[in-house]
Design the sequence.
């Protein structure tokens, strides 16, 4: 492996890590606040990708406005899911788990019926190739993915640590009963957390749709990786999810180049198992319950 290959893989890993980061942050936020394992998060991501495809390719709305529309629409979609399906099951972990899995199947089936099984690609003016000295290449869209992710991560951290709603979320995550005694309405905060988490997944879906095919089953693979990322970073830790997203993307691509993609996944998941054995809190979070 020469320096050109190292730089090329590193650039790809940064882009892929940014996508994982948006997805995993949303999943972490939902789990941290509501303690829900949201199996259907991949389908929310998939609907964001399809929404982006129709807005950009069919209607002709530019990429920037499409991002805003997708974020809003998928956030509202997430609120509807939370209110209709998860809110009535608060405090019932088995029922919530079953509902989450059932929702995954229902949304995937709905997507197949509505969009069909044919792969689609989002076309943007940022798909032009950028060439660097030494033969290293990327695209403007990849740089856009990293930039958008950076802005959203900074915005999310400001929201969580500098606003009253963010402080309420942290209070509920730490101790829901004490938060209730302080007058914090958990139902409203749960709804907001679900909206933000789903909005982030929707944006990730749109961004990735210009790099990888958009299809109804696209959410499954990233969901498994996101669970592994959350475990590595630490359950409930937003910072851990960010760091672990890039650890995973670099490990996945460099191991894939060295030993092949399928074997690389085995190695990555084996590493997660070892982390659970020797450091069950992950890098920055709480112990796995």
Sequence:
């Amino acid at each position: 492996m020469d320096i050109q290959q190292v730089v090329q893989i590193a650039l790809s890993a940064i882009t892929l890590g940014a996508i994982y980061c948006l997805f995993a942050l949303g999943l972490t936020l939902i789990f941290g606040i509501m303690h829900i394992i949201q199996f259907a998060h991949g389908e929310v991501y998939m609907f964001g990708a399809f929404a982006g495809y129709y807005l950009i390719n069919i209607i002709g709305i530019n990429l920037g406005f499409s991002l805003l529309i997708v974020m809003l629409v998928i956030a509202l979609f997430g609120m509807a899911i939370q209110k209709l399906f998860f809110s009535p099951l608060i405090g019932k972990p088995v029922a919530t788990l079953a509902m989450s899995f059932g929702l995954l199947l229902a949304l995937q089936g709905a997507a197949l019926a509505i969009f069909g099984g044919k792969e689609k690609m989002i076309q943007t003016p940022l798909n032009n190739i950028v060439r660097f000295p030494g033969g290293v290449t990327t695209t403007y869209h990849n740089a856009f993915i990293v930039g958008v992710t950076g802005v959203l991560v900074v915005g999310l951290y400001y929201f969580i640590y500098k606003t009253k709603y963010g402080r309420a979320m942290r209070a509920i995550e730490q101790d829901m009963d004490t938060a209730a005694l302080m007058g914090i309405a958990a139902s409203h905060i749960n709804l907001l957390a679900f909206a933000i988490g789903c909005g982030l997944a929707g944006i990730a879906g749109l961004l990735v749709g210009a790099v990888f095919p958009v299809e109804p089953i696209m959410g499954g693979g990233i969901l498994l990786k996101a669970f592994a990322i959350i475990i590595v970073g630490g359950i409930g830790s937003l910072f851990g999810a960010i760091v672990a997203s890039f650890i995973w993307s670099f490990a996945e691509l460099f191991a894939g180049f060295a030993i092949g993609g399928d074997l690389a996944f085995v190695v990555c998941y084996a590493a997660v198992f070892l982390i659970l054995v020797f450091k069950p809190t992950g890098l920055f979070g709480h112990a796995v319950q």
In short: The chain has a mean pLDDT of 88. Strands lie at 129-131, 137-139. The chain has eleven helices and two strands. The radius of gyration is 19 Å.
